[in-house]
Design brief:
The protein has 620 residues and is of the alpha+beta class. Helices cover 44% and strands 22% of the residues. The chain contains 19 helices and 25 strands. The strands form six sheets. Strands 18, 19, 20, 21, 22, 23, 24 and 25 form an eight-stranded mixed β-sheet that branches. Strands 1, 2, 3, 4, 5, 14 and 15 form a seven-stranded mixed β-sheet that branches. Strands 6-7-13 form a three-stranded antiparallel β-sheet, with no helix packed on it. Helix 5 links the parallel strand 2 and strand 3. The longest helix has 37 residues.
């Protein structure tokens, strides 16, 4: 269970991280946070992917453009503006929204004419609000849906005679850090008054319904419009400037405006003149006129085609922000491989496609929040797991290296490829070599454990080097000796030749080893070897993770008994005639040292005799 604990902790931390971000997202009141700034960029990207849309034919813009300014001057005089309102009013619009701040007085005649014109049509006039700071602390109150609406420091209101002639709407927009309009605050709260937004006033008059305020939106007759925190209407744009039908005020003043552009529609009068300053960047246009921003909001409210971003979508954002990092961390923990990486990528792609599909269908789910929630835990946990994997790899490499010092490299590689190797006993031919030190037991009692360890370490290192060189397998170190096999994992034609060569090389190396150690030389420690070939039974002994590969059978017993024969005959090595035959005429046994035999010899514990040879290297 311990190896799962880091993963469980990582999953909990990932979930807590995502939940914390989700909580702050639910409380978000402005667009100034880092996540919201990233979200703004991703909104633009999704808008570009979804592409330009055709707006419903609900709103027309009558623009005070360059043509109008050239013919009538700019800003328009109040009497000219009155003529424009009158000419449009005669064509019976549903509502006429005058997106011009009438805060300064004009001439008496002009102001009087404009006030009269405004009264003659279903007109909305504009006001504006200023705030002491970009971010205010507000208190959420479930019983008061306007509790989260920031309070304005000052209102820029039209002249009283105009305010008495038509209802007022506030033209403020909420922009992100780059100036792109993201929301329309549908209400503006001051110390002693509450005003509806300019687009809301226009939509209310067009639909003939007063807005009913709810916790997560407003209701205009049969329409319910979801709103974000602070009763803000999310804005998405249909396309570049001119996407909403736009006509020149010059044509209206000249009586050339087509009736179908006005009759039964919401008409917004506003300035688009070059240098007018009332422009905003959007995903589709770097200088979208402010009048088209207002017209876009009016269209959203009347048609109900705006983006849905309310408490429910924010709750969905918080849920995804909690679940996605947990899922990615779980996938990283489950499989760190090419397949695992593909599954993680497919998961992220699936989420991105679902997010884009929701956006295309009018639901603004955050993209930045899940990224911020999922990316750090996945990267940190992935890096930690890679570090742990590298540590495990180094650990296993160290263990493998230690294993290779006991098992031949070929056998170790075979076990790595086939973990089930020798899970069941196998009978096959092999060559077996035994080596043992003579008189070492008495030495152990005399020199003490430290010296014994030093001597045996050097002796076993010698054996290991020679066996590895010739491709054998040390199946066990037994006290002061070793058992060596040639023929695992699979028998080879030269097993006997390599076993013979190994026996001769071990004899030569051991002779030098003993002669080079004063204590061993003084006590006349010797050695003996036995070698034989034939059928063996190879298997694993032990259970669980403590297993050893070994060999049993008559061949093994004969090889071990031949060490006694070597000692009794004053030789260094005794081996069977069958081994010499199998090794071939080029065997090293025939080319070096002193060979004697064959002898017919009886072995302890064996009824029949066996033909053997003895061998001794050159005397030092």
């Amino acid at each position: 269970m311990n190896h799962r604990l880091p993963t469980v902790i990582a999953l909990l931390l990932a979930g807590l991280w995502g939940a914390a971000l989700g909580y702050f997202h639910l409380q978000q009141q402005s667009n100034s946070g880092l996540i919201e700034r990233v979200e703004a960029t991703l909104v633009d990207l999704r808008s570009m992917i979804v592409g330009v849309r055709s707006p419903p034919d609900i709103v027309s813009i009558v623009a005070i453009d360059d043509r109008t300014a050239a013919a009538h001057g700019y800003p328009l005089k109040r009497d000219t503006l009155a003529q424009l309102v009158t000419s449009i009013g005669t064509l019976k619009p549903k509502a006429l929204a005058l997106d011009i701040l009438l805060v300064d007085p004009g001439t008496e005649e002009g102001d009087a004419a404009l006030a009269t014109a405004i009264r003659s049509a279903p007109t909305i006039i504009a006001g504006a609000a200023t705030f002491p700071q970009s971010l205010q602390s507000v208190i959420e109150n479930a019983e008061d849906p306007l509790a989260t609406v920031p309070e304005a420091q000052q209102l820029l209101l039209p002249q009283p005679r105009f305010a008495e002639a038509a209802p007022l709407g506030i033209v403020n927009v909420a922009t992100d850090q780059s100036g792109v309009p993201r929301f329309i605050p549908l209400f503006s709260r001051a110390a002693d008054r509450l005003d509806a937004a300019f687009p809301l006033r226009a939509a209310s008059i067009a639909l003939g319904a007063e807005p009913l305020i709810e916790n997560d939106g407003i209701r205009l007759g049969a329409h319910r419009i979801p709103t974000d925190t602070g009763q803000r209407l999310p804005l998405t744009f249909y396309g570049p400037a001119g996407s909403i039908s736009t006509f020149s005020a010059a044509d209206a003043l000249d009586g050339k405006l087509p009736a179908d552009a006005i009759t039964g529609k919401v008409v917004v009068i506003g300035a688009t003149v070059t240098g007018g300053g009332d422009v905003f960047p959007t995903p589709f246009d770097p200088i979208l006129p402010g009048v088209e921003v207002m017209s876009t909001a009016i269209t959203h409210l009347v048609a109900g085609d705006g983006m849905v971003r309310d408490s429910r979508t924010r709750q969905a954002d918080a849920g995804i922000a909690t679940a996605l990092p947990v899922l990615l961390v779980a996938l990283v923990a489950w499989r760190r491989s090419a397949l695992g990486f593909v599954i993680i990528c497919l998961t992220v792609i699936a989420w991105a496609m679902l997010n884009l599909a929701a956006f295309a269908n009018g639901y603004w789910l955050s993209a930045a929040l899940p990224i911020a929630a999922a990316l750090p835990p996945a990267i940190i946990f992935g890096a930690a797991e890679l570090w742990r994997d590298r540590r495990r790899a180094r650990h296993f490499a160290d263990q493998s290296e230690r294993l290779q010092r006991i098992e031949a490299p070929g056998l170790g590689e075979w076990l790595a490829r086939d973990p089930a190797f020798l899970a069941e006993p196998v009978r096959q031919n092999a060559s077996v070599v035994f080596i043992d030190l003579s008189g070492f037991t008495g030495l152990s009692e005399a020199v003490g454990p430290a010296m014994v360890r030093e001597i045996l370490s050097g002796f076993f290192e010698l054996i290991d080097e020679e066996v590895r060189l010739l491709g054998g397998a040390i199946t066990s170190f037994m006290g002061d000796g070793a058992m060596i096999l040639f023929g695992l994992p699979t028998p080879a034609a030269d097993d006997a030749a390599r076993a013979a060569a190994c026996a001769v090389r071990l004899a030569d190396r051991t002779r030098l080893f003993l002669a080079g150690h004063p204590e061993l030389r003084r006590r006349k420690i010797g050695f003996k070897l036995g070698a034989h070939c034939g059928p063996i039974v190879a298997s694993r002994l032990g259970t669980g993770d403590r297993q050893q590969i070994t060999a049993t059978g008559d061949t093994v017993n004969v090889a071990q008994r031949l060490m006694e024969v070597a000692a009794s005959r004053g030789a260094e090595l005794a081996f069977s005639a069958s081994l010499l035959d199998a090794a071939g005429p080029d065997a090293i046994l025939l080319q070096t040292g002193r060979l004697a035999g064959p002898f017919e010899t009886k072995l302890r514990g064996r009824s029949g005799g066996i033909a053997i040879y003895t061998w001794r290297g050159e005397t030092l």
